[in-house]
Design brief:
This protein is of the alpha+beta class and 460 residues long. It contains seven helices and 18 strands. The longest helix is centred in the N-terminal third of the chain and has 15 residues, at 3-17. The protein starts with a helix and ends with a helix. It comes from Caballeronia choica.
C-alpha cells in the first residue's frame, strides 16, 4: 500500500467511526435487562464507587408542591465523604472535567464537596415503553442534525452511536408537559474591582407539546418541540419586557421580543446561538442557557465515550426557595454548602463548529448523565483551544413528574473571573412547578407561544 492509499484508508476508517450505527433488535432487548429502560448501565462500577441503579426517587412523608423538597428527601442528613480543593485536586483529576480542575486551581476558595452516589433518576412507565417502542424507528435526517421518526415522549436513542444522537436525547428529556418558574433569579457577579452585581428577576414557562401521554412524533404541532415565555420583573430598566421563543426539530428558532419603550413586539431572527442575551452585560450568550440549548446544527458532534465524573447531582438544596439569594451567591463562586457532587457515568461528547460557521466558543465538551440524559457539565473553549467558560447544571429529582430535572445552573468565565448563577428559585419564596400530562393550563398550548399572544398579554 502506497502513502496515498494509506491516507484514503485512514479517511474511510475515520468516516466509519463517526457514522451512525442503526439500533438493532439486540439493543432493544437490552432495555430493562442489563440496561435501564432509558439505556443506562444497570450495574455499578468495578470499584463500587458507583452503585447499581435502584428504584426511582420518592419523597418521604407527605410532601406536596409548596413544601421544601429537601426536607422530604431520604438522604438529606448525609455529609460529604470528602472535599476536593486545590490541595488534592490532582489526586482526583481522572474523575474531573478539565473545567472543574481549572476552577479549583484558578478560583480562590473553590471546593467541591463529594457525597455518596445515588442512582434514582427514572422516567414514568409510558416514557419507558415509548423508548423501547421507538428506538428502532428514530433517526437523524439527511441534513445531519434534525430528528425524525422518534416516538415521544421517550428517549430517541437509548443506545447512541453518535454525538448528535446524545444531543437529541438531551433535548428530548422528559420534564412533563410544562415547567413554570413563578419567580426566578439570575445573578451576574460584579466586574473585577467592582462591588455591584447584576440581579435580574423574571418568570418563565416552558412547554413541551410532545410530552403528553400517548405516542407523538416530530411532525406533530408543525414541528414545534419547545415553547418558551420569559418576562422580566426586575430591574426597573427591564421590567415588562418579554420574550417568546419557538424551537423546532428541523428549522431555525422563532424569537419574538416585547420592548416596553416601543410598546411593540419585534421579531428577532438572530436571537440564538452565541448572540448575547438582553440585560446581562454581554456575559450570557444565548445558547449557554442550561449549558447548551437551541439548534445543534452549527456543530459537528463527536461521541467520545463514557467516563466516570464527579457531577452536580441530587441538588435539592438548589430549590431552597425559602432561603435568601445572598445565601447562595459568594463574591467569586456559588456557595459550596449548596453544591453536592456525586460520581456518575456520563457520555462525553465534543462539538466543533462546522466549516463556514462561526461561534465565540468554537469547541465545546458536554458531559451527559447516563441515567437521566441531562447535561451535567460543559466546557467551552476559545479559538486558541483554551478553556474559557465552565458550566454546570444542578440535577435534582422532581417527584411530581417521576423524573429528574435541572434546579439551577452556574456558568463561570475563567477570563473575566465573573460567574452567572442562573434559573434559580432561591430567594423567591416560590418553588419550580412541573406539570404532568393532562394539565389543562392554557399556557401549555402551542398558541400561547406566538408573537401575537406576546403582544396581547404584554401591557406595560
Amino acid at each position: 500500500m502506497n502513502f496515498s492509499q494509506a491516507l484514503i484508508a485512514l479517511a474511510v476508517l475515520g468516516s466509519l467511526s463517526n457514522a451512525s450505527r442503526a439500533a438493532t433488535q439486540a439493543d432493544a432487548d437490552r432495555l430493562g435487562n442489563d440496561l435501564t429502560p432509558v439505556g443506562a448501565e444497570k450495574s455499578g462500577n468495578k470499584d463500587s464507587t458507583i452503585p447499581a441503579f435502584t428504584v426511582p426517587s420518592k419523597p418521604t412523608g407527605n410532601w406536596s408542591y409548596g413544601k421544601v423538597r429537601e426536607d422530604f428527601w431520604k438522604y438529606k442528613d448525609e455529609k460529604p465523604a470528602f472535599v476536593i480543593d486545590a490541595s488534592n485536586v490532582d489526586k482526583y483529576a481522572n474523575n474531573l472535567a478539565a473545567g472543574q480542575i481549572a476552577l479549583i486551581k484558578q478560583v480562590k476558595g473553590y471546593t467541591m464537596p463529594v457525597y455518596p452516589t445515588h442512582r434514582e433518576c427514572s422516567v414514568p412507565d409510558f416514557v419507558a415503553q415509548n423508548t423501547k417502542d421507538g428506538m428502532l424507528k428514530a433517526s437523524i435526517a439527511k441534513d445531519g442534525w434534525s430528528l425524525e421518526n422518534a416516538t415521544l415522549p421517550g428517549v430517541p436513542f437509548p443506545v447512541p452511536a453518535t454525538g448528535i444522537e446524545v444531543i437529541w436525547n438531551w433535548m428530548m428529556r422528559y420534564q412533563g408537559v410544562g415547567v413554570e418558574w413563578p419567580d426566578g433569579y439570575t445573578y451576574v457577579s460584579p466586574r473585577p474591582g467592582g462591588a455591584a452585581p447584576i440581579v435580574i428577576r423574571w418568570n418563565q414557562q416552558t412547554y413541551y407539546p410532545w410530552a403528553r401521554k400517548g405516542q407523538h412524533t416530530p411532525e406533530d404541532e408543525q414541528g414545534l418541540h419547545t415553547g418558551i415565555f420569559y418576562s422580566y420583573s426586575e430591574p426597573a430598566a427591564l421590567a415588562g419586557q418579554g420574550l417568546v421563543q419557538r424551537y423546532y426539530y428541523n428549522k431555525d428558532t422563532d424569537s419574538f421580543y416585547y420592548f416596553t419603550g416601543q410598546r411593540r413586539v419585534r421579531r428577532l431572527p438572530a436571537y440564538a446561538y452565541d448572540a448575547p442575551a438582553i440585560g446581562y452585560d454581554n456575559q450570557y450568550p444565548y445558547d449557554m442557557n442550561y449549558v447548551f440549548t437551541g439548534n445543534p446544527d452549527r456543530f459537528d458532534w463527536k461521541l467520545v465515550g463514557k467516563k466516570e465524573i464527579f457531577i452536580p447531582y441530587n441538588e435539592l438544596a438548589m430549590q431552597r426557595f425559602n432561603s435568601k439569594l445572598s445565601d447562595a451567591t459568594l463574591p467569586d463562586l456559588v456557595n459550596p454548602a449548596l453544591r453536592r457532587y456525586e460520581l456518575h457515568r456520563v457520555w462525553e461528547i465534543q462539538g466543533t463548529v462546522k466549516a463556514g460557521f462561526r461561534h465565540t466558543t468554537p469547541t465545546k465538551t458536554l458531559y451527559v448523565d447516563e441515567d437521566s440524559w441531562l447535561v451535567a457539565i460543559g466546557d467551552d473553549f476559545d479559538a486558541q483551544g483554551k478553556i474559557w467558560k465552565v458550566k454546570e447544571n444542578y440535577i435534582a429529582p422532581e417527584w411530581e413528574i417521576g423524573a429528574c430535572s435541572l434546579a439551577a445552573a452556574t456558568y463561570t468565565d475563567l477570563i473575566s473571573g465573573r460567574y452567572i448563577f442562573d434559573m434559580t428559585v432561591i430567594g423567591t419564596g416560590k418553588d419550580l412547578k412541573f406539570y404532568s400530562p393532562g394539565a389543562t393550563d392554557p399556557r401549555f398550548t402551542s398558541s400561547f407561544y406566538t408573537g401575537e399572544n406576546l403582544s396581547a398579554i404584554s401591557s406595560r
